UniProtKB/TrEMBL annotation:
<comment type="similarity">
    <text>Belongs to the plant dirigent protein family.</text>
</comment>
<dbReference type="Pfam" id="PF03018">
    <property type="entry name" value="Dirigent"/>
</dbReference>
<keyword id="KW-0052">Apoplast</keyword>
<feature type="signal peptide">
    <location>
        <begin position="1"/>
        <end position="21"/>
    </location>
</feature>
<protein>
    <recommendedName>
        <fullName>Dirigent protein</fullName>
    </recommendedName>
</protein>
<dbReference type="InterPro" id="IPR004265">
    <property type="entry name" value="Dirigent"/>
</dbReference>
<keyword id="KW-0964">Secreted</keyword>
<comment type="function">
    <text>Dirigent proteins impart stereoselectivity on the phenoxy radical-coupling reaction, yielding optically active lignans from two molecules of coniferyl alcohol in the biosynthesis of lignans, flavonolignans, and alkaloids and thus plays a central role in plant secondary metabolism.</text>
</comment>
<dbReference type="GO" id="GO:0048046">
    <property type="term" value="C:apoplast"/>
</dbReference>
<comment type="subunit">
    <text>Homodimer.</text>
</comment>
<keyword id="KW-0732">Signal</keyword>
C-alpha cells in the first residue's frame, strides 16, 4: 500500500499540471466586427509635390511617370504614405498612416497589392503595423468614398477583421502652432 502512494501522487500532479497548461484557459480575444477609418490618397501629378502622399516610382517605358498610365494603369508601381482619419475630411487630425505600394498588373485575379480604383469594394490583407496595430493581421474591405480627378481620392476602410482589437484605442494627435503634424502611426 505504501508503494502506491507515490504513484498516485505522481499521476495527480501530472493531471494537475496538464489542466494549467491547457491552451483554452487563457484570455480569449474576439475579432473586431467593424472598424471604420478613412485614408486620403493624393496622387502626385507633376505639380503638387508639396501635397502628394503617393507617387509613381515605376512605369512602362512608354508611360509618363508623373501621371498614371492609361485607364487600367498597367505597369505602374505607386508608393504611398497616406494619412488615416476617423472621417472623410482630409484636414481632420490623423490617427495614423497607411503605407505601402500598389502594383497595377491588371490581372483578372485580384492580388493583395493590386488596387482597382473603380471597383465598388476590394479586400486587401493587413499585415504588421505599429502602435496599437503592432503585429496585427487581418483583412480590410476598401471602398472608394470620393474621387476628384486623378489627384485625390478618399478610401473608406471598413470591416477590418483583426484579432485582439480590445486594446485598439485612438490617441488623436494635436496640431502644433507651427502647422507641423507629428508623425503618428497605427
Amino acid at each position: 500500500m505504501v508503494s502506491k502512494i507515490p504513484t498516485i501522487l505522481l499521476i495527480f500532479f501530472m493531471l494537475l499540471s496538464f489542466s494549467f497548461a491547457s491552451p483554452n484557459k487563457g484570455k480569449q480575444y474576439k475579432p473586431c466586427k467593424e472598424l471604420v477609418l478613412y485614408f486620403h490618397d493624393i496622387i502626385y501629378n507633376g505639380e503638387n509635390a508639396a501635397n502628394a502622399t503617393s507617387a509613381i516610382v515605376g512605369s512602362p517605358e512608354w508611360a509618363n511617370r508623373s501621371l498614371l498610365a492609361d485607364l487600367d494603369h498597367f505597369g505602374d508601381v505607386v508608393v504611398f504614405d497616406n494619412p488615416i482619419t476617423l472621417d472623410n475630411n482630409l484636414h481632420s487630425n490623423p490617427v495614423g498612416k497607411a503605407q505601402g505600394l500598389y502594383l497595377y498588373d491588371r490581372k483578372d485575379v485580384f492580388t493583395a497589392c493590386l488596387d482597382p480604383l473603380m471597383e465598388k469594394t476590394r479586400d486587401v490583407s493587413v499585415a504588421g503595423g505599429t502602435g496599437n496595430f503592432f503585429m496585427h493581421r487581418g483583412v480590410a474591405n476598401l471602398m472608394t468614398d470620393s474621387f476628384e480627378g486623378a489627384a485625390l481620392r478618399d478610401e473608406k476602410v471598413s470591416q477590418v477583421t483583426t484579432p485582439n482589437c480590445e486594446n485598439i484605442m485612438f490617441d488623436v494627435p494635436k496640431r502644433h502652432s507651427s502647422g507641423y503634424m507629428p508623425s503618428s502611426t497605427l
